[in-house]
Write a structure and sequence with these properties.
seven-stranded mixed β-sheet; alpha/beta; 8 helices; Endonuclease, Chain A; elongated; homodimer
Chain lengths: 210, 210
């Protein structure tokens, strides 16, 4: 069989042989490309900014309309909620301060769906005015902290050990409606993995009572 | 000339033709690979963490020795200074609060070297106790801010419009010696570029007097 094919090829002119070889290579490369792009999950790299122009967008938020203001705090919050709610199996939250109801409600919804949610919080801020940490506990989400004069100053979460969201942005109403802040979302392994390991180490170190 | 080459190829057996085509392709791919890897700058993705264990490392910092504590605040600060001092043409700093002398001195050294340094600072924090913003101004570094009830809460810099360093970490002595904090360094275009554009927009919006 292979002998026949080689014999047939030998009888053809050079241009035909070269053409067939090139066509076969294109088919192999294309099949490989489509196979890989199907298997590989989408790579995420996204940046959001909060500015002092965010507060002016409150009205459109109530109408849930689309916003064309690039620094729109409400569009950013909706986007962060989408990332929280994209969790399928785990959601690890490490947060200095959470008073924003939209974000807290997203976390509670994910927990109700059966996703394994874990929260690390700052010991003093957890008991501060408007903090949602007590609400998390009431609904059965495990929360850990550490009694310390130092601040648990992180503001990140990791979805399914795969997507990291982090930045300067505190999850408060003040940060939403005026501060200049940033949030980075990434699925880059060499950035997500250290955060994932750091969360695991803090989770082991911290306790339920702080 | 081309006719002669084609004629020579036609006279050869199929196996020889296929071998020569494949060899030529390998040579072309290899040349392309080495050419690209020479032109393309090194990709940077790095994560640093600060923990409550940082303070214990003060002694080794004074000896400038190597530290094996992963959360060592002083090793992190040295690393951040290295990134600041790697600036060749521009250094854009957007910072809530800077009281750490090591970081401030690195910025001053870069400025003295002739690098174009620009600083955006929080209006109230710039005049706070220990703030290095007045020192920057005294040495001729342009500083801009905006009078506002809101916080300029970013903590990032961009080196040569190419490397971004950002995180939850404030450039203070307290953050260095105890808080749990993170810093991400990246040269990913789709993350660095939005920060670069954001800095340019704030620079245009803000003024020298706030």
């Amino acid at each position: 069989m292979l002998g026949n094919i080689l014999h047939w090829f030998e009888a053809q002119p050079f241009s035909k042989v070269a053409g067939i070889i090139t066509a076969l290579q294109v088919i192999i490369y294309a099949s490989y490309y489509f196979a890989v792009s199907k298997v590989k999950p989408k790579v995420i790299n996204e940046v959001m900014f909060f500015t002092d122009q965010g507060a002016g967008c409150q009205e459109h938020n109530e109408n849930k309309g689309r916003c064309y203001n690039e620094g729109c705090a409400y569009s950013n919050i909706r986007r962060i909620c989408e990332y929280i709610e994209s969790s399928r199996s785990t959601l690890d939250v490490c947060i200095y301060l959470i008073t924003c109801h939209d974000l807290a409600n997203s976390i509670l919804r994910v927990h109700r769906r059966g996703v394994s949610v874990r929260v690390i919080a700052d010991c003093d801020m957890a008991e501060g005015s408007g903090s949602q940490v007590a609400v998390f506990r009431r609904f059965g989400i495990p929360v850990r902290m550490k009694k310390s004069p130092y601040l648990m100053h992180h503001k990140f979460f990791v979805v399914d050990h795969w997507i990291l969201l982090t930045g300067s942005f505190n999850w408060t109403m003040q940060a939403i409606t005026g501060n200049w802040d940033n949030v980075i979302v990434t699925s880059r392994r060499d950035i997500v993995e250290p955060f994932d390991n750091h969360f695991a180490a803090l989770w082991d170190e911290f306790t339920a009572t702080g």
